[in-house]
């Protein structure tokens, strides 16, 4: 009976496939039969599956042929039902690698001007370098939106979107060094052996589009830490972030070797089908193999992306008006790509601001910050407005911030050092209350002192908005259950709508 049921499934799948694809499926299946027969003529002694059983077993592998896509979309996510009512479907993270100074942008500190040059007791922070006296920000703040939240003059366009933002002024983290701070913000720990937030989301929820990765990282170069920031670690390899260097917006340059110039689509269908069948056969003999499963899914996704990826990453398909609204440059391209990928069902898109640590302003801070803000203001405002105009902002959570902030005291006369004790992040769309601030730093901006938000709390809140209880999304490895928020974290219910 089981064999008959399996046969009916295969026949139905073959009937539903386009004619050319159906022919390739038959050819690939026949080739697999030939290999199996040549390798061992006695299938019964070796308990080898027949061709129909083999195709039945490959299940998810048929996704490379565009079949059973609904089943694959469900199977890609391990979490079959939401823990709590989901308020959003996907996340876009705008990452200001290097760490912006909160007192320049969203957390005004007028006391800095009053006590400029002085060094209060609070200034004895455990940072990387010794800093001098208080250095006021030269940038003015103006009330923005109906909420009247003060936003820096450096972000005149972004300030128009403040009524969609929940601005957290009291974020803090555990370490003032870039590497550990980047890991904690991305992976929930300073250890380089844990899955990233995007990998947890992919593992828990899967992708809404089987033809694109669930997790995409857009970065024109690389930050201080590289692929460990989007690693899947001990989670199945298929949940690792797909890194795209988006410095050049031409699709074939964005993703090198995206197209196969040596084989037709029909030939590739046959090759992928055959390879998938043989790999599934190996898995049946040897047992579960997470790395092989990851490679299988990566191969299938790569095949599908030849056709859907080219379209998704082609900014020239956008109107001239839309492209001009985002502005020019790699960050503008990244924000527009993030919108295109999100509306196509990519679960988590990270947009790193630039190569290295551009916001790491240890010298010439004011001039550098002015240039950096000029570069991000238009793209961020355009992204939020574009998502809202398309009806996507309510189901897309946008997260902004760096791995830490900067000191209100001066370094090198005109720079600022790292400050992990108190800095600003903000969330917009996706189930958060807009037009509000949450938490406070002290009068000078040294430390978070009221409604303090640790990175674990931020992660717990993001998971909650996606319908996930952060304490229940776990993976057992090396004898213990791991989760993104380790053994801490609480949801910030005050910012949830």
Q: What does this 3D model show about the protein?
A:
This protein has 497 residues and is an alpha/beta fold. The chain folds into two domains: 1-40 and 265-302, no CATH class; 90-255 and 313-495, Alkaline Phosphatase, subunit A. Helix content is 38%, strand content 13%. It has 16 helices and 17 strands. The protein has helices spanning 2-16, 19-39, 43-46, 51-58, 69-76, 102-105, 111-114, 178-187, 197-205, 251-254, 265-286, 290-312, 320-326, 330-343, 365-389, 455-465; strands at residues 90-95, 141-144, 149-152, 165-172, 215-218, 242-244, 348-352, 396-401, 405-406, 418-419, 423-429, 436-438, 440-441, 448-450, 453-454, 475-477, 480-482. The strands form five sheets. Strands 1, 4, 5, 6, 7, 8, 11, 12 and 15 form a nine-stranded mixed beta sheet that branches. A two-stranded antiparallel sheet has the order 2-3. The chain has a two-stranded antiparallel sheet with strand order 9-10. A hairpin with a 6-residue loop joins strand 13 and strand 14. Helix 1 (2-16) crosses helix 4 (51-58), helix 4 packs across helix 11 (265-286) and helix 14 (330-343) runs parallel beside helix 15 (365-389). It starts with a helix and ends in a 15-residue tail after the last strand. The model is unreliable at 1-76 (pLDDT under 50).
């Amino acid at each position: 009976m089981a064999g008959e049921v399996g046969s009916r499934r295969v026949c139905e799948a073959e009937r539903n496939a386009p004619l050319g694809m159906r022919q390739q499926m038959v050819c690939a299946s026949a080739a697999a039969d030939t290999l199996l027969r040549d390798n061992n003529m006695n299938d019964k002694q070796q308990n080898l599956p027949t061709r129909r059983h083999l195709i039945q077993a490959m299940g998810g592998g048929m996704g490379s042929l565009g079949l059973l896509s609904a089943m694959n979309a469900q199977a890609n996510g391990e979490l079959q039902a939401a823990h709590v009512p989901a308020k959003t479907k996907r996340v876009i993270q705008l990452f200001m690698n290097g760490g912006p100074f909160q007192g320049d942008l969203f957390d005004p500190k007028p006391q800095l001007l009053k006590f400029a040059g002085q060094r209060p007791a609070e200034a004895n922070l455990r940072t990387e370098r010794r800093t001098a006296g208080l250095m006021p920000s030269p940038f003015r703040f103006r009330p923005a939106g109906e909420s009247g939240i003060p936003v820096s003059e450096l972000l005149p366009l972004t300030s128009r979107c403040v009524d969609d933002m929940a601005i957290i002024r009291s974020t803090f983290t555990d370490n003032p060094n870039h590497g550990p701070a980047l890991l904690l913000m991305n992976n929930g720990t300073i250890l380089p052996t844990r899955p990233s937030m995007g990998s947890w989301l992919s593992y828990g929820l899967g992708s809404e589009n089987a033809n694109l990765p669930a997790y995409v990282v857009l970065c024109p170069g690389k930050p201080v830490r590289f692929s460990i920031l989007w690693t899947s670690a001990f989670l199945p390899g298929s949940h690792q972030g797909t890194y795209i260097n988006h410095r050049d917006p031409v699709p074939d340059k964005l993703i090198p070797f995206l197209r196969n110039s040596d084989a037709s689509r029909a030939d590739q269908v046959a090759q992928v089908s055959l390879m998938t069948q043989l790999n599934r056969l190996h898995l049946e003999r040897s047992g579960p193999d997470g790395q092989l499963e990851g490679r299988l899914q990566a191969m299938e996704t790569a095949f599908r992306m030849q056709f859907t990826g080219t379209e998704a990453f082609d900014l020239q398909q956008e109107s001239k008006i839309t492209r001009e609204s985002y502005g020019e440059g790699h960050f503008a391209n990244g924000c527009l790509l993030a919108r295109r990928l999100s509306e196509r069902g990519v679960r988590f898109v990270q947009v790193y601001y630039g190569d290295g640590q551009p916001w790491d302003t240890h010298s010439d801070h004011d001039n550098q910050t002015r240039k950096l803000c000029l570069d991000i203001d238009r793209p961020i405002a355009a992204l939020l407005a574009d998502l809202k105009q398309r009806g996507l902002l309510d189901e897309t959570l946008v997260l902004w911030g760096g791995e830490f902030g900067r000191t209100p005291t001066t370094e090198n006369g005109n720079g600022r050092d790292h400050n992990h004790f108190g800095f600003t992040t903000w969330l917009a769309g996706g189930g958060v209350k807009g037009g509000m601030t949450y938490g406070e730093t002290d009068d000078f901006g040294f430390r978070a002192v009221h409604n303090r938000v640790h990175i674990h709390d931020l992660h717990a809140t993001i998971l909650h908005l996606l319908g996930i209880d952060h304490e229940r999304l776990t993976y057992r490895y090396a004898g213990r259950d791991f989760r993104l928020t380790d053994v801490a974290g609480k949801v910030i219910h005050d910012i949830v709508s």
